[in-house]
Amino acid sequence: MPANTAETLNVLAKMKDPGKRRELAMGVVDLCLAQPLSPTADPVAGELLVTLSARSDTETKAEIAARLAPCDWAPHDIIRFLAFEPIEVSAVIIEKSSKLTQKDMIELAETGTTEHRKVLAMRANLCLAVSDTLARPGEAIVLRALANNSTAEISENTLDICLTVARDNPKLREALARRHDLTTDFATQLCIMLPENWREELYRRFGLDKDKVEALAVETALSATPEDVDKEAAKRVNDAAKDGKLDGKYALDALVRGEEAVFDHAIAHLCGIKVSQWRIALAMGGVRAAAMACQAANLERTAYPVIHKALQRSGRMHQALEGDAMSAAANVFRMYGPEKAAKVLRQMGSRG
């Protein structure tokens, strides 16, 4: 492309009529799509499209992006420019363009929005440098997209970030559990955060030692509460019991306030079991254990959703209150009275 032609096009690119700018932009896109441009023409066309796009509306930029994204020889300058535009423009570029370089993707992961990172996390064949950068902010929605991307390379450091965030995010836990490239140690750590049906799947797929996983779950459950906090909670509950103030409402109110140690001691006292038995039962039995505790402590059935959701928020309940979880809880309320529920709960908590 001669220098005088390039200068002429740049003058045209700055024209004020949006209709003519759009027409010129689409004409240049047509030229780019027709065949690979020469090394001289490529940067000129790219610069021209960047100038035009910068002065164009979102609809025009989105059309340029959609047309250039599948083109293996599109000018790099315009591809890079469009990748950093708002997500309604950039998504197709981030997903499809082979012209985005590793450097571009790392910069996008560092400086883009959460939406940019989420779309980038779904891109095929991400390398470690990109996935590590995407994971660094610890955004659950991005980590979940990354975990669901079976073609993405994921380092142990990124998996550690995922594991930390997954404690409060059931969907991320499930996405991680579906991956086939986990180490045995990681799968074991993840396993204790999953419902029983998922655990069985991981035992089979990764050849995990079930006894080791259960022992780790027990250890984690028993060591989660600091000793001083536990002693203070036990004292408060004993004092409440002596004063005749310990009942289901006392336990439920403590849980709602976020005082989990107080709740643990209160619910154990009301169920006639040790606090360690309650914690082990919850870690191993999840929904079934929590529903048994409701029955054994003579709590109203309507209290169960409150307990379930509070325990889920704190990462101690690993199933959402839907489908199988709702059925399991309903079965407990239908089949067990307070005495029988307390007996079963005691048995569930005796694994340690």
Describe the structure.
71% of the residues lie in helices and 0% in strands. The protein has helices at 3-13, 18-34, 41-54, 58-68, 76-83, 87-96, 102-111, 114-121, 128-135, 140-148, 156-166, 170-177, 184-191, 196-206, 210-223, 227-242, 248-256, 260-271, 275-285, 287-296, 304-313, 324-335, 338-348. The model has no long low-confidence stretch (mean pLDDT 91). InterPro entries: DUF2336 (IPR019285). This is DUF2336 domain-containing protein.
Summarize the topology.
Blueprint (H helix, E strand, L loop, with lengths): L2 H11 L4 H17 L6 H14 L3 H11 L7 H8 L3 H10 L5 H10 L2 H8 L6 H8 L4 H9 L7 H11 L3 H8 L6 H8 L4 H11 L3 H14 L3 H16 L5 H9 L3 H12 L3 H11 L1 H10 L7 H10 L10 H12 L2 H11 L4
Helix pairs in contact: 1-3, 2-3, 2-4, 3-5, 4-6, 6-8, 7-9, 8-10, 10-12, 11-12, 13-14, 15-19, 16-18, 17-18, 18-19, 19-20, 19-23, 20-22, 20-23
